[in-house]
Structure of Tyrosine--tRNA ligase:
Amino acid sequence: MTYHPKSDFMRVMMERGFLADCTDYQGLDEALIQGVVPGYIGFDATAKSLHVGSLIQIMMLRWLQKTGHQPITLMGGGTTKVGDPSFRSDERPLLTPEQIADNIDGIKQVFAKYLDYDRAETPALMLNNAEWLDQLNYLDFLRDIGRHFSINRMLSFESVKSRLDREQSLSFLEFNYMILQAYDFLELNRRYGCLVQFGGSDQWGNIVNGIDLTRRVLDHQIFGLTTPLLTTSDGKKMGKSADGAVWLNADMRSPYEFWQFWRNTTDADVGRFLKLYTELPVEDCDRLGALQGSEINEAKIVLANEVTTLCHGAEAAAAAEATSREVFEHGGTGDDLPTLELSAGELSEGISIVQVLVRAGLAKSGKEAKRLISENGARLDDEPLTDAGMMLDAGALSQPLKLSAGKKRHALVKLAD
């Protein structure tokens, strides 16, 4: 649609490619002009970190605060006990309260880098929906909240319909999730004046439910705004790489590996990712994204540096770039490369190069490591690795060895002190 926003926040959303849908463009735009708008995103605590797939949402909250409004990060301490069934083919594994609390602690570390919880005006709020969900009385909840939901309508939502169409089980526990998420929006509006919920476009049905429930119970107008579900230009889901999820916590994905993920962005995605994941002016993003040939590689380094600086700090970004240049341009090893340390005991009878490739994270299994070697995709100190039966002993590691899988993934192997 063509809508010309008046508020800074909506202008940023539209110019930088954050916007998929909005329940009422003009209504939300006017609310943003009239005063401070609190807006929230809910994050279930299913792991100790969020990954790159959530970064578009986090950047959206960052822009909300930068344009003078109040971001709310809602931890799903309550809803994680149920699990969001949206577009899943199976039921989520249930976590213990201790696991959920541990995961929330890890996720909070990510938000502290992107949002300011201590500023005098419009400080970000960190909330946990267990605060109200854990206290619910089931019969009261059914009578006061459940009566506003139509099963016929809930069955029509794509996230539920796709599961039923495939004749995959959808438990009553999971079916309740969308009611609980709608109730979150109602409670945030009642307690904190929250006016808008953000989410990926797969959350549209859940967001609309919350808006409808709040209108019915409180007679308040609130809004929903969704981002596109991002895939890379080659069709891969954003946030995944050859060796698994790209986590935002440094203890789960090193700053160097994080930097390298962005450096390896496909040419066609550079301009779009600069707009979404950095704060560079839009015209700079367009200029860098339009570069051709070898010049686009410098744009990718800008992207990697900007995103890594936001997530891990400028020092980590500079160290990652220095390591990358040493490894790729000068044939060095680089101190920041992922490192596998092997003890003298492990090497007493030798260890196969196949096992080392797996343990260094360059292959997921022995079978994959052997295939990598047979297809000339593995290198040892920049020389082709051709013998899958090769064994390493302590003598071979008198100096650290550099192992490579393809052109872009490297690790150091050295003797433990």
User: Anything to note?
Assistant: The domain at 254-329 is CATH 1.10.240.10 (Tyrosyl-Transfer RNA Synthetase). The CA atoms of residues 235 and 266 lie 11 Å apart. The mean pLDDT is 85.
